[in-house]
C-alpha cells in the first residue's frame, strides 16, 4: 500500500530515487502506526482520557473547551468547527447529554461576556423589548 501511495505522488511530482525511498519509508511507518492503533481499538484497549470517554461536563473548563469528537481545545466550540463533524451545536449537546442552554465556551469567556452584558444593561433592555413585543 505504501508503494502505491508513493507511486501516485511520484506521478504528479518529480522525485529523485532517494526522495522516493525516503517517502516510502515514512509512509510505511505511518501506515504501521495506524494499523497498530486500529488493532488496539479493536481489542478494546481504549484509554479513559480520550475525548470519547471524557465526562461531557468536564470538557467545559475554565480556560478551554475540549471537543468530544476530535479532542481539540478551543476557547469557543464554534458552529463552524462542529460542522466539520457534521453536527450543529444542538446535535452536539444532545449527543453528549449537555443541557441545551449550556454555552459551548470556556467558563472564563462566558463570565467575561456576562460581565459586559451587565455593564451595558442588556438584561434590562431585553426585558423591556420582550414586554413591548408581547402585547
UniProtKB/TrEMBL annotation:
GO terms for molecular function: DNA binding; zinc ion binding. Residues 39-58 are annotated as: Disordered. InterPro entries: ROS/MUCR_sf, ROS_MUCR. Gene3D superfamilies: ROS/MUCR transcriptional regulator protein. One of its GO terms (biological process) is regulation of DNA-templated transcription. It holds the Pfam family ROS_MUCR. Belongs to the ros/MucR family. This is Transcriptional regulator. The lineage of its organism: Bacteria, Pseudomonadati, Nitrospinota/Tectimicrobiota group, Candidatus Tectimicrobiota, Candidatus Entotheonellia.
Amino acid at each position: 500500500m505504501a508503494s502505491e501511495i508513493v507511486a501516485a505522488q511520484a506521478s504528479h511530482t518529480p522525485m529523485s530515487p532517494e526522495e522516493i525511498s525516503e517517502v516510502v519509508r515514512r509512509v510505511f511507518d505511518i501506515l504501521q502506526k495506524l494499523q497498530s492503533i486500529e488493532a488496539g481499538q479493536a481489542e478494546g484497549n481504549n484509554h479513559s482520557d480520550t475525548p470519547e470517554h471524557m465526562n461531557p461536563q468536564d470538557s467545559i473548563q475554565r480556560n478551554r473547551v475540549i471537543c468530544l469528537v476530535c479532542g481539540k481545545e478551543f476557547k469557543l466550540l464554534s458552529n463552524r468547527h462542529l460542522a466539520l463533524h457534521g453536527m450543529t451545536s444542538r446535535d452536539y449537546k444532545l449527543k453528549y447529554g449537555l443541557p441545551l442552554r449550556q454555552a459551548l465556551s470556556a467558563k472564563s469567556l462566558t463570565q467575561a461576556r456576562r460581565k459586559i452584558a451587565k455593564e451595558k444593561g442588556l438584561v434590562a433592555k431585553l426585558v423591556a423589548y420582550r414586554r413591548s413585543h408581547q402585547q
